[in-house]
Write a structure and sequence with these properties.
Chain A is of the alpha/beta class and 429 residues long. Chain A has a 7-stranded mixed beta sheet with strand order 6-5-4-7-8-10-9. Chain A has a 3-stranded mixed beta sheet with strand order 1-2-3. The first copy, chain A, starts with 7 loop residues before the first helix and ends in a 25-residue tail after the last strand.
């Protein structure tokens, strides 16, 4: 298998920073292009300042946010492929944002969804668009390696102490990220109705925190699968250090090879990397591994209707990723007649989670710069800001879907288990 | 519009009761037919007793339940069209059940789903199969009239005092039906996050209890639509008697003509009568009536995968009805980019609700017999027992789906509102 060098991703971002070409004249043509671009993205309430330092006439002079475009090439590229080139030219410093980046992106995203070109209509092939690499067994390895293997030290700078890189659950809006990630792991455990002695399989375990939480607090044994080598290495170290080695086994392999029978199937933040072409395959895996009375939970970013991801996001950040609609997710469940027991949408919690990550990231810029340089900082700032914006304006969702086999009557009677203030058990239920 | 006489339905059930043809001989051929029939429905653990009073050899002699078939014609009809003819011949007394009818149906349904002919695979045209009448504006009126207009006095015999003919919510499993129906109305109100002074539109309001509950306890004004004349008459009388006339308006009309703007859209137990052909139309109605910050809730019977209803159920009980899958429901929401905020599956609550209805129905047989005769009693016993069985074994689901517009951030932060023991407000929030 040919996995690209793990720093290749970082290298693609370090394009030369051209800077402003001082002295280059701005023509009427340039202003026309700028206005055409703005119109193409739905005339958002943003200023556009060209390389002469002047706002393009009539362009929302009082707007709270604006973008500075440093040269004509950048302006023309924006018109050709706005989503890809905005990202790349922002990273390279050829575009700069005035005002708050999150607010800028919220404003632009909101207006884009009202245009013909970008409006939110269902596209049955959405998940194939702009994809450099779909999710075959080897494709998945490349795609996962691209994002998750750039170094645990980097993620440690801005994730919580348990290293969870998925939506947290804030029992109240002022909870810390640490509290909220533990609350999320516990909510997932309660939704699975875990009992001591049960067996759990986890598909896509990240740095392994959910598996350790379930083992420690609910007395279950867990097999946790992941194809990110660096994450698996970290997860094993933590389990060893915390004396959970006998209860949690981390397996560096693909969800498609999961074997055995389990009382619970859980997957938190993996479905985004599976791709709808493989949902039926995932359903078959669940069908062959879940016991008759078993409960399953899939936690995933989702969408209201099928739209492609931005090409920049797919090329630079998460190749192969796609957040499904509820309709698309049903391909996992319907062929095996799984019952949808519960769906909770935690979109606002993901907005807050990403805000926390962005804050912590910004507080650690010196370390990130040492590691990867400025273009990388700009890329991750853009990515994290874009996530905050998308969850806040409702372009992305976070679905927690609980399911069971049709004849399983051990499903919860009411939602008492959802009490946000529930105490976390000590493992001796 | 040509609506059939409201007693026509009852008449179709009163086929002559043939009784056993004493003395008719049972041949080896008859036993072979009986075994073939049993095999066709997956060899359930039931006895078959033919008209000589003898169990067909080897047919589960120790089974807790059995069926007595009174003549050869009935036996042959079972083989030709098991679902339709079992129902009709049971109603006419040509088939009788030994042991508990619910248990009999659970046993048979469970085994049927394992056969090639009846197994649970998705059928994209499921909702069209066996349908005498789909749901155009006039078709809907006929279909609704068929079931709901057979007389309020009849429904009063076995529904709760508020006359709710939809799944109740039992805060605990021993709650009374009365308590559980009030708890359901309140759960729906809390999920809608109703505030005093808001406006609500209800599509398909039955006898009007949900509308009165929301008006009385949450201080909202409600417009409630229904095309069942008898239900609307009753609902108006109750609202007048309870002094809620100024707050609740019952409108005898189709959901497709709903006008105005509302803070909440609610529909409890109507979607079953809409039909997937009209889901997009329903979505358009919701889209034009719900405010930007509005919340919607649809409460409906559903399925894990698309399968047709039984032809007997469609012909005799609920013409035009179809319980959708989650996938099919998304046709309501996706075109307008509604966000799925929450899905709760109350399947076991509907099983318990139907058990309560069946018990009350059985306690009032004398009155029902006076009203409609024996065949009617048998038909409703079969229908209510079939519902208990289907919800208990998981062939049918009950989905409560909460939705909003994508940019609405007033959706609930946690599920504290779900607390089963929540107190019902006094209307002055």
């Amino acid at each position: 298998m040919n996995i690209p060098d793990k720093k290749a991703f970082v290298a693609t971002l370090n394009m030369p920073y051209c800077g402003a070409k001082n002295g280059e004249r701005v023509f009427g043509f340039d202003r026309w292009v700028a206005r055409t671009f703005l119109h193409a993205i739905g005339d958002p309430e943003v200023r556009i300042i060209l390389w002469d330092g002047v706002n393009v006439a009539d362009m929302a002079p009082a707007a709270a946010v604006g973008m500075v475009i440093h040269d004509r090439g950048t302006l023309l590229r924006l018109l050709a492929n706005p989503l890809l080139n905005f990202g790349d030219d922002y990273c390279a410093g050829r575009i700069e944002i005035e005002g708050d980046l999150v607010r800028f992106m919220e404003t632009v995203y909101r207006s884009m969804t009202c245009t013909t070109r970008f409006k939110r209509t269902s596209d049955p092939d959405a998940y194939r668009r702009h994809q450099p690499n779909l999710n075959s067994l080897s494709g998945s390895r490349c795609n996962i390696h691209h994002h998750y293997d750039i170094g645990n030290d980097f993620y440690r700078l801005w994730l919580d102490t348990e290293m969870l890189y998925t939506c947290a659950y804030f029992p109240d809006q002022h909870a810390s990220l640490e509290t909220a990630q533990v609350a999320k792991m516990d909510l997932v455990s309660r939704k699975l109705r875990l009992q001591p002695g049960q067996t759990v399989v986890e598909a896509g375990c990240g740095w392994g925190a959910q598996a350790r939480h379930m083992a420690r607090h609910y007395g279950v044994t867990v097999k946790a699968y992941n194809i990110s080598h660096e994450q698996i290495v970290y997860a094993r170290q933590r389990a060893r250090a915390e004396g959970l080695e006998g209860q949690v086994e981390y397996i560096e392999d693909d969800y498609r090879v999961i074997k055995g029978k389990y009382d619970a199937f859980v997957s938190v933040g993996m479905l985004e990397h599976v791709g709808p072409d493989h949902y039926q395959e995932l359903g078959a895996v669940i069908n062959r591994t879940l016991t008759e009375q078993g409960i399953g939970l899939i936690h995933t970013i989702g969408q209201n209707c099928a739209r492609p991801m931005s090409p920049w996001f797919l090329k630079r950040m998460f190749p192969g990723s796609y957040p499904p609609t509820i309709r698309e997710m049903m391909t996992i469940f319907e062929p095996w007649e799984f019952t949808i027991v519960d769906v909770e949408n935690l979109r606002l919690h993901y907005g807050k989670t990403c805000e926390n990550w962005l804050d912590r990231f910004e507080q650690n810029l010196d370390r990130v710069r040492e590691m990867f340089g400025d273009a990388f900082i700009r890329a991750w700032r853009l990515y994290l800001s874009g996530c905050v914006a998308n969850f806040t304006i409702g372009s992305l969702q976070l679905f927690q879907v609980v399911f069971s086999r049709p004849g399983n009557n051990r499903i919860p009677w009411t939602r008492e288990y959802c009490t946000p203030s529930a105490e976390i058990p000590d493992g001796n239920l």
